[in-house]
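INPUT
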Amino acid sequence: MEQTVRAKELQLVVFQLVNETYGVDIAKVSEIRELQKITRVPRCPDFIEGIINLRGRVIPVVDLRTRFGLPAGERTANTRIVVVEIGGHTIGVIVDEVLEVLSVAGDAVEPTPPVISGLESDYLLGVAKLDDRLVILLELDRVFSRSEQKALMEGAYSNGALDKAV
Amino acid sequence: MAGFEFSDEDLKIFFEETEELLQAMEDDLIGLEKGDEVGARLASIFRAAHTIKGSSATAGYAAMAELTHSLENVLDRLRKGQAKVSTAIVNHLFTAMDILRRLTGDAAAGRESGEDISLVRRLLEQDLEEGASTGAVTATDEPQPAPGVDAPPPAARGAVSRPWAGVELEESEREALVEGCTHGDTLLAVTVDFLPDAAMVSVRCYQAYLYLEEKGRLAATRPTLSEIEQEKGGASLTAFLFTIEDPSVLAAEIEGLGDVRRVVLEPVSLADLVAEDSPAPAAGTDIPAAVASATAAAATTAKAPAAASVATAAADTATGTKSGMRTVRVDVELLDNLMNLVGELVIDRTRLVQSVDILDRAYGGKDTNVTRELAEATAHVGRITTQLQEEIMRARMLPVETLFKKFPRMVRDLAQKCGKQVELVIEGQHTELDRGVIEEIGDPIMHLLRNSVDHGIESPETRVARGKPPVGTVKLSASHLENYILITVEDDGKGIDAEGVKGVAVRKGFLAAEAAARMSTQEALQLVFVSGVSTAQKVSEVSGRGVGMDVVRRNVEKLNATIEMDTTIGVGTKITIKLPLTLAIIRALMVQAGSGTYAIPMASVVETLTANQGQLKTIRGSEVIVNRGQVLPVHRLTKLFTDPCGGDPRALVIVTVGGQKSGLLVDKLLGDQEVVVKNLGQFLGAVPGLSGATILGGGEVALIIDVQSLLSSHVAMAAREERIA
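OUTPUT
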């Protein structure tokens, strides 16, 4: 087979959230788990569902729907927790359904159109056009934006009781 | 430095040894400045510098060797009384040692060192010149720091005489020796025995070789130079040296190399040499009896204590090596892994116990054998696991001294900078703490010490005006209390003014004036731990940015520990950190409340009661209970944790925080057990009220409550709610 120089190829884990299909870089995904009991952690931002036991480790779980301001969904038999590594942290992300793992040619990715489901374009890498559907590429690191991550880490939310804004 | 290659192992030991020596030098320097055992300390610092110089030169670190050489010069003058110990000199010595430390660090990390040693060397040289002109004398005791150097009478030679006697000499070597002796040169047989399990034996041999080479004419050595270089030498060096030096001086200096078990220097006469031989002696010599030659040699040598047979004790040379003791160097990572494994065992042990319970209930009546076997085995596994846990924890323990030793210097420098006079008293250095804890507790303690020196202790004038001694005392102590370690930082300074703290909090908008008015002193003092509050008049370079105490508390809490403050205006402040003996495993009371299961550390639990509604009273909207004659505030756990599910509270847990008791209302008590503490992780950050999470036997996650932060954040929240209302 002739090795031609290809545009960079992406491998994505594709999942469903409400009506749309999203893809994240497979390199960041460490595993996909079925939904399990999530222990609620008080006084956290609302998109943090809680914590789970991942083979002896305690990791936080976030609900992407809540994070994206989408209506809350029902947990079904298809709901999954996608465990990802971002910014040195291991966190679980709740999605409606994991569809498949795809290879996408770099040149099949188009820049994000200005408005897509109200998401900030900050964390969208683009849109991949595949046959009959669109896969929205997410830059997970930025989904939990730096300022939010920083705020979380400094426990600013937690210290909310003492902030001056009243 | 051609010829000798340091192996990686050798280098590692060299770096560690140098670190230890530098620390010892620092301690001695501080003691020296105080005028404490000046002679002995100067001697000890000098020896240490000397050792470092030798080792670093051999290892090829020229900058270190040069700098140490300059250090040595100053120290030499000081110990000979040719210069006076002044603050300036001490400061320069400290600076030099700091640079040396950095050089060592760079070298150990394989980094190129950008350090410029020329400035500090010039400073040291200046010290030498100035010292020479003032010429005052301080160090008056023993000019020669050579412990264990006796000049035993010839009688003592009996056992150790002529250890070189069995050496096989080559023809050429023998000829050289004979020729030299005939010529009238003094020949010494030097035998150096190093400690056999010393870490860098070959290096030591090499150093000894080089040293002797400079002192005269080395006619022969065993092992030979190439054997030493190839590390085939073994732990002894025998050398035949023509020299005019004083044997006792040589002995002392060889001893200073480190790891020396014994040094023997004996004069060798021509007769000795010749007597060894079976073949015909060289022409023109007599052959007196072997024994007689020894005494004859004694007579012929010009030096007075010719029989410089020196036996050195193995213990505490400047290097303070621990070889010969039964210790093993273990990587901390290994211990951490062991700790993790034990943690998992603890979880599984609980699961086993629960499973046995279930089986027992199902089969207990029918077939007791199965369950009994299982129960016994499980119990045994339980006991072994507990023991394993304890042993590994012990292995991870280090005396707190390793942490405390850097503080005297820090306090000294800080006091100087702040213009205060402070004496740091340290107690309980031998108290042992888990390694992981020691690493984490260092910064908080440092901050507390800084606060004491910078804000607590008043200036000497102010102190005197208040009838206090001009020198303030800061006491750092570590002690055991049941299952805890207490670390306290206490000063006799001006104390913390609760009213002042309240004032700042109100001014900065953290607190409403009315809430402040109603706050008790205890509660007001807790405000010190809030980020942004600081009563320092001006932000000093050192502390006072108002960011410190909250970080201190957070770090302390990360360790599952508590911090409390006790202060009296004008008298002083005492801060106590209470650390659980184990980092990762604690005993906790499990409770059910609303939708969650929680673990309350037993350390905070005073007692438990069933709570019926009748006992709960309400005072101004808050629930209270009368317990043992006291009125205690009661909080519903579900409310504290904003749990939408209110639960059905039927049990009360009385907890204590800083001596103050409160009641926590929960649904059900689930018993107490050991739990493995898991961090909530950095993504979540610090959640008030929680110190971590744990995984229960069945795999569920329970939250571990931090009683102190839970209740204090509640206090703050209540204050806020009142502000809104």
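end of record. The longest helix of chain A spans residues 146-153.
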